[in-house]
Amino acid sequence: MFKTIVSVLSVLFFFILPAPAPAQCNQPLCRNLQAILDEAVTDFRGYRANKIPGPDVSIEGVVVPCQMSLWANNVPMYICYAKVANSDSQKWYARAVQILQDLNPTWHFQISSSGEDHYVDAGPPNCEIPPNDGPHRGQCPLHLQTTKQGDGTSKLYLWMNSISSPYLLKPPPPPPSKTVSSAAVPATAPGAAAGCDDLCQNLKKAFEARVAAFAGIRNSKGNDETTDVTVRLAGAQLCSIKEAPAAKANSLGTQFVCYWREASASAAETRFRDLISRLQILIPSNWSTRQEYELDDSTGAEITAWYAIEPGNKHDVRVYVSAGSVGLHVTTWN
After folding, report:
1. Confidence (pTM)
2. What percent of the chain has pLDDT over 70?
3. Residue 133 — very low, low, confident or very high, per pLDDT cuts 50/70/90?
């Protein structure tokens, strides 16, 4: 009986664990990718507890830092991001994909390329591409992409999801099918094919609008203190642009704010984590981030706040959760 159990466990771990690294895996990128894959097997416990320093996925001349994050469904992921010259992104992409294929010869790599843009989802055979709200069992744990920008640079991303998290549940059943006419089917939103839903697109618009003090998303109606906006984030009770409260003497600023009121504290926490995971993809890698526990100045209620601050403090982002309330502030300072 004992031998049978050992045999069964051996088979299970054979399919879960990435293939052993080849003997010639002496490049820093190869070693670091293998370390990330190994940590995913143990739910990134070492990285999450800060017992093991998390590696980057840089190569010569291309710095790609990484950090831990959480999906909206609480599955940990290790995410790496950089904005680099387009030629450097192509070099990094080619090398990273080749190493990952060598490290995982049994994995299936789903690669979609359009010109110099590349999207890769990889994992065990027949794995499915995860949705934006987090992965489930049977879905690909690895994602890699590089997308060319208009200024001659490219944004590159790599993230690896935990493959042993207790939050990796079965995918929810699909909604009941409905028979509708083709005229009733809405057109696919731009960017949806690349996995960017409505919230993703509008959050991106709001974040990028900070550069011009949100002029591009202001509604012409309203006053100088609070202005309606043309961009609203899904589920928010209120989104507006208003004068930012002074953070220090003689400081003036403008901020895009949205507020959500959820049915429970757990739903608010899910919203909070979802916003952070989306912002971590948008925010440049040289911004500093931190999470703090604070008290509300007016009510004294406990608040969990997450900050992302640009070097020089010209722009910053704050996401907070308190009980069933969630808030987002994107601020530009004069």
Report:
1. 0.52
2. 79
3. low
Q: Which residue reads 């490290």 in tokens?
A: 103
Q: Are 162 and 140 in contact (CB under 8 A)?
A: no
Do 171 and 137 meet the contact criterion of CB atoms below 8 Å apart? yes
Q: CATH 3.30.2030 spans which residues of the chain? A: 197-333
User: Architecture of domain 197-333 in CATH?
Assistant: 2-Layer Sandwich (3.30)
Cα separation of 258 and 261, whole Å? 10
- Extract the tokens encoding 198: 């409505």
The owner of tokens 């994992």 is 123
Backbone angles phi, psi at 275, to 5 degrees: -60, -40
Residue with the larger pLDDT of the pair 320 and 20: 320
Question: Rounded distance, CA 183 to CA 185, Å?
Answer: 6
Separation of CA 9 from chain center: 33
Separate counts of helices (H) and strands (E) for the chain: 6, 14
pLDDT at 20 over 70: no
